[in-house]
Design brief:
The protein has 4 helices and no strands. By secondary structure, the protein is mostly helical.
Length: about 90
């Protein structure tokens, strides 16, 4: 797979993850739909063998699953926790 194609896939994963987190914050999507979207992104990361993206998305899914029933209000907390991670996708 070419480096331009890998870069495009990584950008797509990053953009879609941010969109999903934004939709969690504003209540546009439900918890199950957000988890499904993140699972799809995880599969894309696995297909390109990017362990860092896989770990990042896995952590986000774990935080979402552990969120209480008031998860929409916790969307900002989930985003802040992910944003403070040691490795942020797209940043090397």
């Amino acid at each position: 797979m070419g480096s331009n194609r890998l870069a495009g896939i990584r950008k797509f994963i990053t953009d879609e993850k941010e969109r999903t987190l934004s939709n969690i914050r504003n209540g546009t999507i439900g918890k199950e739909q957000a988890t499904g979207s993140l699972n799809t992104l995880y599969q894309l990361a696995a297909d390109i063998h990017d362990i860092h993206y896989m770990k990042d998305i896995s952590s986000t899914i774990a935080l979402l699953r552990s969120a209480s029933d008031n998860w929409q209000r916790q969307g900002a907390l989930i985003s802040q926790t992910i944003d403070s991670a040691v490795y942020r996708p797209g940043i090397k």
